[in-house]
Amino acid sequence: MAQRIEGQDFASAAMMRLVAMGLARQGISIPVPTSPTAHVSLGDKRAVLSAVLACHGPLAILSIADAACAMAPEPVVQALTNARDIPDLMERWHRLERFSHGRHRVEIEQLSPQRFRLTHRARDHGPPPSMAESLLVLGLLTILTEMTGSTDVTMKTDAGAVWRNEGKWHDAGTSQGVGSVVLTAASASRTVEVRGNNPETDLVSRLRGRLVADPVRRWTVASLAAEAGAAPRTLQRRLTEGLASFSRLVTDARIEVAATHLCKSNGPALAEIAFIAGFADQAHFARTFSRTVGTTPSSYRADFGQ
């Protein structure tokens, strides 16, 4: 398990770029803390968000999330927005939280097939998040829900006051903090076609491409076979004929994704790569990569990073 650094909270470079871009798009000139590592001082981060909230109000915090749609391609954002629906998005977000070792987490309660209560609260009985921190996280999850293709997305207080609907932010008028919000969305079904020149001989290679496109998904033999319209037994037979296995196919795809990012010397940090590539945690990533490739992720980046 990665060691938590006292006084610091893991904040991905992607999140800090989001904050900087979101403020710039609004014409708000407040310096955003940066770091050569994936850690940013918790105090500095809170100070920026608190200053924005105090000077510009909650809409300025919520509007930061809008920048997610305008950012250059971000691997972490892509991993999240590949989600099929809100529960899948939340599962991916929870996995990201485990990698970040943050002090706060988002809990989800399904109220109906299309309504969910999201609560941003402290982890392990620690200090609660500030109003600005909760607005940023819950606002970002709302925008990510829209980016997954969901329609009719709304974010309201428990009392029904509107934070977001019809693609616009509103001031719900609360000054007592943001304990939880109710997110409503109609999930848009996604159809991913798996094509190839020869449906018999290309099946395994094409499905590996599907795994590479979304390694964070909790794949099963049945769900992968369904992507190609094949029966699970057909996929198992094709894998056996190719002297492969489902678990090896998944591992190879995750290693391919990780290696691609490791070849970028200025690419994501190792913990982010572990999440992007779909591993359970950074230790699992390091063990699997070393066993498969024959060298550690750090050594691989040092040797091949450009």
Protein described:
The chain has 306 residues and is an alpha+beta fold. The protein has helices spanning 13-25, 42-56, 58-64, 75-81, 86-100, 131-147, 203-213, 221-227, 232-241, 246-262, 270-276, 282-293, 297-304; strands spanning 8-10, 39-41, 104-112, 115-122, 151-157, 162-165, 168-169, 180-186. The radius of gyration is 21 Å and the shape is globular.
Give the tags:
306 residues, alpha+beta, H-NOX domain, Arc Repressor Mutant, subunit A, 2 domains, two-stranded antiparallel ribbon, 13 helices, 48% helix, 14% strand, globular, HTH_AraC
Order of helices and strands: EHEHHHHEEHEEEEHHHHHHH
Reading side by side through the largest sheet, how are the strands ordered?
Answer: 3-4-8-5-6-7
Assigned CATH class of the largest domain = Alpha Beta
CATH architecture of the largest domain: Alpha-Beta Complex
Work out the helix count.
13
Sheet with most strands: 6 strands, antiparallel
Fraction of residues in β-strands: 5-15%
What is the CA-CA span between the terminal residues? Answer: 28 Å
- Low-pLDDT runs of 5+ residues are 1-11, 194-201
Report the strand count. 8
Helix proportion range: 40-55%
Rg estimate, integer Å: 21 Å
Q: Quick one: overall form?
A: globular
Mean pLDDT: 83
Q: Can you tell me the number of structural domains?
A: 2
Protein name: Urease operon transcriptional activator
Organism: Roseovarius mucosus
Domain HTH araC/xylS-type: 205-303
GO molecular function, one term: DNA-binding transcription factor activity
